[in-house]
Specification:
single chain, about 150 residues, alpha/beta, Nucleotidyltransferase, domain 5, 5-stranded mixed β-sheet, elongated
Length: about 150
């Protein structure tokens, strides 16, 4: 910080470098924000499990599908009526992966189903994903410490 003296009684501070550094720090921390919860929806209340544990490493190509209590599905921020409505979205994901020279077989489908949803509906989601060509699936649950 440069101090400019103007006469014996007055000192003027140049705040430009300090403001510049503040904005650089803000930009730095915005980049470091953890975006792992970006694909979560508060309408989905995950079931609790004592055997649930966080994944060892993040998936390279995660695709998140969420199901609310009444069986409706949320994908890419859109509410869908059933598992069959996922087909165009999954085909779009498949196309994006192919343009990146990746296979849908290596992508991981993350299913976040509400604790009150029916298991059969989750199985329908998996079946539709398999018909498109996806093979890896992860089911999310809240981790609870068991005694």
């Amino acid at each position: 910080m440069k101090i400019k003296a103007k006469g014996p009684d007055f000192v003027e501070l140049d705040y430009t470098p300090m403001i510049d550094m503040t904005f650089q720090l803000i930009a730095f921390f915005m980049i470091l924000i953890n975006f792992s919860d970006a694909e979560t929806d508060e309408r989905v209340q995950l079931p609790s499990s004592t055997i649930a544990k966080p994944p060892d490493a993040a998936s390279e190509t995660p695709i998140t599908i969420q199901m609310v209590r009444d069986g409706k599905i949320i994908m890419n921020g859109q509410m869908l009526p059933d598992a069959n409505a996922l087909r165009p979205f999954l085909k779009n994901e498949q196309y994006v992966l192919q343009t990146r020279n990746q296979s849908e077989k290596n992508a991981t489908i993350i299913i976040r189903a509400d604790r009150g949803s029916k298991t059969g509906l989750v199985q329908q989601i998996i079946k539709v994903c398999q018909e498109i060509g996806f093979e890896k699936f992860t089911l999310r649950a809240k981790s609870e410490v068991g005694f």
